[in-house]
Design a protein that fits this description.
Shape: elongated
Distance between the termini: 27 Å
Helix content: 25-40%
Structural class: alpha/beta
Strand content: 25-35%
Number of strands: 12
Mean pLDDT: 94
Largest sheet: 7 strands, parallel
Low-confidence stretches: none
Strand order of the largest sheet: 3-2-1-4-5-6-12
Oligomer: single chain
Order of helices and strands: EHEEEHEHEHEHEEEEHEH
């Protein structure tokens, strides 16, 4: 499978490249990165309008601000697309929904199998312990731009599916009693933390803590490449981790 890697020069771009080097079934045939200059092992274009290389799929680890151009290119070329970027605006999400009607599109807040399992466990726990209070704590490196993380928001959204009257509180300050329907979300940014997500579900008498910790960014590159392989031959539609994995 020949891949066009959007965000070729970024940290995650490098992880994707390293993984494909040891997998004969996968090849990064070209890249797109606005910082591109000089010579690379494959053609690296500054924008999608310059791309001439024939590919089978697009994997995106760039920045959500490029979503419009990326989707326009994918639809025009009829290419499957794996969106592995976070922080999308409401308008960008609408564009993603519209594009998924034309091409197979994989869109997930987190490409870790462990995180997908964490989300399902959190949802189940919230449903069973219906009177419990819930807090979510996420930790990432100091270069991450969006807060809370897309994964933390995905966990909260999953919990809201079984608790439709719940609402999120992003950070907490001031004076006032905690509402039992709150789902608190707290973001920590420091150092080189790859990614940690902790869900605390507690009552007056007991507490359950669910936690996932990523040890390497290669974890997310591996998941994105698995998603790319999953999309091959699929009809147009919007896919996510639950589409790929059966719990």
């Amino acid at each position: 499978m020949r891949i066009l890697l959007s965000g070729y020069l970024g940290h995650m771009g490098r992880e994707v490249i390293n993984l494909t080097l040891s997998n004969p079934e996968l090849e990064v045939a070209a890249g797109v990165d606005y910082m591109a200059q000089g010579e690379y092992d494959v053609p690296v274009y500054k924008c999608f309008g310059e791309v001439e290389t024939e590919v089978d799929c697009i994997v995106d680890f760039s920045h959500h601000s490029l979503t419009g151009d990326l989707l326009e290119f994918a639809v025009a070329k009829g290419l499957p697309l794996v969106l592995a970027t976070t922080g999308h605006t409401a308008e960008e999400k609408e564009l993603i929904e519209a594009a998924s009607e034309r091409v197979p599109l994989f869109f997930a807040a987190n490409y870790s199998l462990g995180v997908a399992l964490l989300i399902e466990l959190a949802k189940k726990t919230a449903a069973v312990m219906e009177d419990a209070e819930i807090e979510i704590i996420e930790k990432h490196h100091n270069r991450k731009l969006d807060a809370p993380s897309g994964t933390a928001l995905a966990i909260a959204d999953a919990i809201c599916e079984v608790r439709p009257d719940s609402f999120t509180v992003k950070g907490r300050s001031g004076n006032g009693k905690r509402d039992t329907k709150e789902i608190g979300i707290h973001a920590v940014r420091m150092g080189n933390i790859v990614g940690e997500h902790e869900v605390i579900v507690g009552t007056q008498n007991q507490t359950i803590t669910l936690k996932h910790e990523a040890h390497s960014r290669a974890l997310f590159a591996e998941g994105a490449l698995s998603a790319a392989k999953f999309l091959m031959g699929k009809p147009a539609g919007l896919y996510d981790m639950k589409s790929m994995i059966s719990f």
